Amino acid sequence: MSSTPQSSTSSAITPRRKRIIIALTGATGTILGIQALIALRALNVETHLIISKWAENTLKYETDYTVANVRALADYSYSNHDLAAPIASGSFRVEGMIVVPCSMKTLAAINVGYGEDLIARAADVMLKERHRLVLVTRECPLSSVHLENMLSVTRHGAVIFPPVPAFYTKPAGLADVVEHIVGRVLDLFGLEMEGIPRWEGFVKD
């Protein structure tokens, strides 16, 4: 006697939202990290935020945002001391991580795998799991130590992205510069911000 096949009643698994870890460190340029959070929210990307102690001080000095304001822009926020956070594990599914701005201290820690805090540990996880890690390094001028750390961490798989303005966009102000830099960073994750000007060659008169 043959059995009648039964139709499956199980529903398809709903695809999860893309996830990106955002880390702010104590270097100048915290507005870049804030703008990245705003842009990712507009793109419906799930964000996991870490703010270092010195980033908290810098953002209050450089911007009108409070730490609470910035944390509210993210879907999830963690203490930099919480090494038991989900993002400290390689089993956490994520598209990648942006350290913006990235101080030279954080760069050095990531380069040598010194995961003393959650930012360095999460970045170390990105490298070992072969996920995209973008370091928006902020320092000027650069010493040979900085340059060697940048070259070394690039060989480990990270992307160094100094926040250099593009003058061909003819920015009207600092907000335009910040927006374009953040847009180019998100390009590295296959994410496109609307309205970002792109080079289209010289326009003939």
From TrEMBL:
One Pfam family recorded for the sequence: Flavoprotein
Residue ranges occupied by any Flavoprotein domain in the UniProt entry: 18-188
Official protein name in the record: Flavin prenyltransferase PAD1, mitochondrial
Keywords (A to Z) from UniProt: Flavoprotein, FMN, Membrane, Mitochondrion, Prenyltransferase, Transferase, Transmembrane, Transmembrane helix
Subunit structure: Oligomer.
InterPro entries named among the record's database cross-references: Flavin_trans-like, Flavoprotein, UbiX-like
Annotated transmembrane regions: 20-43
Gene name of this polypeptide: PAD1
Enzyme Commission no: 2.5.1.129
Organism, as annotated: Aspergillus homomorphus (strain CBS 101889)
